[in-house]
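Lecture 7 notes: from sequence to structure.
We start with the chain below.
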Amino acid sequence: MVLGRAGLRLEAQKFALYLVVPISASLAFNEPSVQVWAADYFKFMKYPSNPKTNLKDEFEAVRKQREEELEWERRMAEKRGRGREEYMNQLKQLNLARGGDCADPLELTQWRGWFGWLKGWRRGSGEAEK
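Predicted structure tokens for the same chain:
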């Protein structure tokens, strides 16, 4: 014991901590309501709803449902892509109709991201200086 009483006090506190943490965890998590909540929340044990359920058929149904969801997501992504292209074409037409010199709508939407609006505030690139 190099530290004397201070070292003894530190060792006593560590020993108390080693005892208190597992005991308090046992008391807290051995409550039936907490165990039921944890089993439901984390789906600890998931049994078929009926013991006579054919698990192969149930698995196939879940797989088919997941494939349908993936197909729907793919179709929606394609639809969004087509809508985006149509929007860009409309922007081009509107810009040309107003006599704009910019035929590329990407130049209109160059400032992307969260802080894209700050790019116009840099020195030398502000509207007031033009």
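Points to note: The chain has four helices and no strands. The helical segments are 5-29, 32-42, 55-97, 105-108.
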